[in-house]
Structure formats: structure tokens, C-alpha cells
Amino acid sequence: MRKYIAEFLGTFILVFVGTGSVVYSSATAQSPLTIGLAFGLALMVAIYAFGHISGGHFNPAVSLSMAIQKRLSWLDFAWYVVAQLLGAIVASAAVLGGVASYLKTSTVTQALSGQKMSVKQFIDLAGMGQTNFTDGQGISAFAFEFGLTFLFVLVISIVTKLANVPAPVAIGLFLAVLIIVALPITGGAFNPARALSPAIFVQGKALTNVWVYIVADLLGGVLAAFVANFFNSKSEAPATQD
């Protein structure tokens, strides 16, 4: 049970901090750098806090890859995904719960020139940090998510087996860089739970298109598993416990 709670909390931290950085900066000039770092640093902290308990996946694509690599049982995989989805959904609900207070801040008041805006109006306008892509760009979005998720999970699979590498730092910084690259094209999910949770609250096109992220990210994790097995079979580096 400790493992599943750790996955719930770690995913909550990742999604709350990451999407919160998007939502609560909507009234100012948003920077891809700060958004990428918010996700990356949140993941790094979550791995340091809970990685020794559950392995620090916080992502169904990572858990699927680890199960294929036989570094996670299939039973644990199923419960990890449940915990990750619940953690992400609760995180999005918490971000939504903070919108009313955000609308009362001086930053938003000045941006609206004193006009009132309801929570629903804000969500319809600014969103919930959901990932999405331009109409007609589904194939490009799928390819981007698949390719970058593959790289992300592959790096995770390799660095977590190297005793001399600070895996949480490498993983967090790599996620930040990937998000900065993908932000204008897909929003940079690389995580089905992170993609699904805000889309549930926003609905509309974000929810209609979320299947692209779920399928592409999971397939990226599958490919990463086989490539990681190839690379790790050639390495004599000591493995860490997941």
C-alpha cells in the first residue's frame, strides 16, 4: 500500500505544481522556461521524496515500460496506474479549487481592469493547463508525443540503473527541456495521467483529443522498454532498486 500512496502523492505533486504554474500565470506573460522548470523540478522533488518507496514513476507510460522490462510486476503496474490517475485528477481538482482565489489577486484584477470573471469563464478562456494541438495537426502531435515520450522513458530506464548518476536531477531536467521544446506543438505531456486529468475538467476539444496523448505516450513507453533492454543488456553498471 505504501508504494501506491507514494505514486498517488508523487503524481499529485507533478500535476499540481506543473499545471498550476500554467493556470496561475495566465494573467501574465507566460514563459516556456518557467513552465518547463515547474514540471521538471516538481518531478525531481517527487522522485527524491518517494522514489525509494515506489521507484518514483508518477506516469503510466513509465510504469508500463518498467513492467515490460520486468522491473515492476503486472499487478503493481495496474495499481500504480490507478494511483497515478487518482493523484492527477485530485491535483487538477485542487488547481481548479484555487482559481477563485486567483481571480481575486491584484494581478488578475489589473488585467481585467476591475471587471468580474467567474471561475467557469476563466476556465473557458485560460484552461486548466491541459495539453492540446492545433486542428488538423493530430498526426504531428502524435509523432511528437510518441518520439519525445520514447526518449524520456528511455533515459529514465537507463539512468535509474546507473549508480553514479543522480537520476532524479537528470530526469527532472530532461523533462523540463522536453516540455520547452514541445510546448508550442503539443503542450508536452509525455504522461497519460497528466494529459487526461485537466482535460476531464476542461472537456471540449481537449477531452476529445486526449486519446492521442494516451496512445502515443503508452506506445512510446513500450518502445523505450525494448530499447532499454537492449542497452542495459550491454551494460555492466550496477542496477538500482526500483
Automatic annotation (TrEMBL):
UniProt topology in membrane: Multi-pass membrane protein
Entry keyword annotation includes GTP-binding: no
Record key words, sorted: Cell membrane, Membrane, Transmembrane, Transmembrane helix, Transport
Protein's UniProt keywords contain Translocase: no
Subcellular locations according to the entry: Cell membrane
Transmembrane segments: 35-56, 77-103, 138-159, 171-190, 210-231
InterPro entries xrefs: Aquaporin-like, Aquaporin_transptr, MIP, MIP_CS
GO annotation, cellular component aspect: plasma membrane
Domain of life according to the entry: Bacteria
One Pfam short name: MIP
Gene Ontology molecular-function annotations: water channel activity
Family per record: Belongs to the MIP/aquaporin (TC 1.A.8) family.
Entry protein name: Glycerol uptake facilitator protein
Native species: Leuconostoc carnosum (strain JB16)
